[in-house]
Amino acid sequence: SQVGEVCRLSQESSLRRCRTPDGKICSGRGKCDCGICMCEATGPGKFYGPRCECHDWVCATHNGQIRGYCDCGMCECDEGWFGEACQFQEECSLSSKKSRELCKNQQGVVCSNRTCQCGSCVCDQNDDKGLVTGRVCECDDGECLDEDTGEVCGHGQCYCGNCYCAAGWHGDKCEFQCDINPWESKRKCTSPDGKICSNRTCVCGECTCHDVDPSGDWGDIHGDTCECDERNCHATYDRYTDDFCSHGQCNCGRCDCKDGWTGKKCEHPLSCSLSLDSSLKKCRGTSKLPCNGRQCVCGQCICHPPEESRIHGKNCECDDRQCEDMKGEVCGGESTNTNVH
């Protein structure tokens, strides 16, 4: 249709004309306007074709490897080579073991359970529609695909399976428009130190605080602008008492001590005649750590856990468990391990 004209097609008919055989609207690279794909310029070149299926720049990005020719943005490979960049050789000079080693990720998984070919991962299997990428197939951009519309991150960009939305948009697929303008959103998300959500994510004027450290407790980072990071309290965690801020509570990343207690972990009683530094010095002895890393209270070491009698000494320097680890008897008895002296 011409600009300004009313489309005579139903939405269903319009989308059907724009849909590719694999179900994507305009190949995920443009917008459908009354059955016609309006391809979006992207990267260093552009997309073209009736359904934006062609691109004029991808072939040129394959490190200058000339093992085929470019047709509609796709590499047609010479005999003996295959892959989207003709980068895979059908006959491999590597051993099977060496090839698999080159295809492993940090966890030791080969190509994220896909195919390894001569030391390189083949990610674009038929059922993935070319959405799985990365050196070891670690990125699944299928997570960005809106199955209802066929669009990939409608108002944003997909990076390794995550949608990064343009200003003014939000949602898992960037499908929702904010009801405030980007400048107002930024103003609401600015913390007192001038940072946007303390370097986290601002969505329509509200901060999303937990996305930086998904492996941790999402409640650890909070506040209107994510200014409170309780993980600072966790940094003082005492693994022997199973506690942090032992005689106090964590308040916006700082231990606030109960009456009668002080110290970074609220571990030092004010009733103690020694200063905190003097107490720690007395507990240190010849070790670098006070009480060899266990609990120091007013210059006295508590070798936790209390029921563990094998850890003892003025500064918790004796650990009889080490003898048992060498399959001998506890020091003081008759050793059955000839390596124990």
UniProtKB/TrEMBL annotation:
The keyword Metal-binding does not apply. One of its GO terms (cellular component) is focal adhesion. Keywords: Disulfide bond, EGF-like domain, Glycoprotein, Integrin, Membrane, Repeat, Signal, Transmembrane, Transmembrane helix. Residues 143-175, 232-267 form the EGF-like domain. GO terms for molecular function: integrin binding. Gene3D superfamilies: Laminin. It is a single-pass type I membrane protein. SMART domains: EGF. Its main location: membrane. One of its GO terms (biological process) is cell migration. It is found in: Membrane. It comes from the Eukaryota. PANTHER family: INTEGRIN BETA SUBUNIT, INTEGRIN BETA-LIKE PROTEIN 1. Belongs to the integrin beta chain family. This is Integrin, beta-like 1.
